[in-house]
Design goal:
Elements: E1 7-8, H1 22-31, E2 36-39, H2 48-58, E3 61-70, E4 77-82, H3 89-115, H4 135-144, H5 151-159, H6 174-183, E5 187-190, H7 200-212, E6 217-222, H8 227-240, E7 243-247, H9 276-281
Parallel strand pairs: 1-2, 2-3, 5-6, 6-7
Antiparallel strand pairs: 3-4, 4-5
The structure holds adenosine monophosphate, zinc ion and fe (iii) ion (2 copies).
């Protein structure tokens, strides 16, 4: 395919905590002029088939994706997977463990909230069939019950790391998480590395460590990064010989400031910023 100018390799649908159904998300991306995209729902491949079918129908370039949360003290370590076999038995077994961990965590959080005098039941959550339940679903239900004024307050006081009702869900460390993607034939890319909350001096060393575990690339361009942070990550990728990728981390109404195909301040995510090797490895011709 002719490589389109505008791309997005990180977005979420109702299969996890996004607000658009998979096919709707692809329609919205097409309407924004995005010509090549990946869906990267949290810990699930459930949205890929309907989204891929819609992309084919609309003639948009498509890459299967996923975003897995790994154990990491002090920050968020999310690993994006691209171009893996979504029917790989090892991957599916891992994802079913993720699903169970999310269910267990949901029960723990609802329990803690009820001890805080904020009773919620699973039925109060807007979870469509097969959705990967996340804290944004709980936050939305808390807003609907008028327990908090908005989702930010829900995270600040209850659901965030320091919140009164926090419980974690991570079951695999970085090695196992990267292996799930690599063993299924995919590329492993660390999402929004600024959210690792590492000092500048520690970040490159940690990314080098992940490379030793099989990491292929760095999501240097993400809507949570400032311009200078994107540039710094591009330099680190070059030093470590890692691929550079980019995505908006679009969630729809759950993160209303984030737009498809865009970074902060509406800056477009351009295919020329992405390593050619990313496209080559995924079998996308870039003539
Ligand atoms: P989970 O998958 O349950 O760990 O939830 C993670 C999701 O929660 C992320 O994708 C974010 O979109 C969302 N999130 C995290 N912190 C906040 C916050 N302070 N306000 C709103 N959403 C948040
Ligand atoms: Zn999310
Ligand atoms: Fe993430
Ligand atoms: Fe994400």
């Amino acid at each position: 395919m002719n490589l389109p100018g505008l791309v997005d390799f990180h977005c979420h649908s109702t299969a996890s905590d996004g607000s658009l159904a998979p096919a709707q998300l692809v329609e919205a991306a097409a309407a924004q002029g995005i010509g090549l995209m990946a869906l990267t729902d949290h810990d699930t491949v459930a949205g890929l088939a309907p989204a891929r079918a819609k992309a084919q129908e609309l003639g948009i370039g498509w890459i299967d994706g996923i975003e897995l949360s790994a154990k990491f003290a002090g920050g968020h370590l999310h690993i994006l997977g691209y171009g893996f076999d979504p029917t790989h038995p090892g991957l599916l077994a891992g994802l079913s463990a993720f699903r169970q961990a999310r269910k267990n965590r949901l029960t723990k959080i609802l329990d803690k909230l009820s001890h805080c005098g904020l009773p919620l039941e699973e039925a109060d959550l807007d979870l469509s069939e097969g959705t990967s339940p996340g804290r944004p679903h709980i936050a939305a239900a808390m807003v609907a019950k008028e327990y908090v004024k908005d989702q930010n307050q829900a995270f600040d006081e209850y659901l965030g790391h320091q919140g009164k009702a926090y419980a974690d869900k991570e079951i695999f460390g970085p090695q196992e998480t990267i292996a799930l993607i690599k063993n299924a034939g995919g590329l492993a890319v660390v999402a929004h590395p600024i959210s690792l909350y590492l000092k500048r001096s520690e970040l490159a060393d940690y990314l080098e460590y992940l490379k030793g575990l099989g990491l292929d690339g760095i999501e240097a361009y993400n809507s949570s990064h400032q311009n200078d942070q994107c540039n710094r990550l591009v330099k680190i990728a070059a030093q470590l010989d890692l691929l550079v990728t980019g995505g908006s981390d679009f969630h729809g109404t759950a993160k209303p400031l984030v737009q498809l195909g865009r970074l902060k301040k509406g800056r477009k995510i351009l295919s020329k910023w992405i390593s050619p090797q990313f496209f080559d490895t995924l079998g996308i011709e870039t003539t």
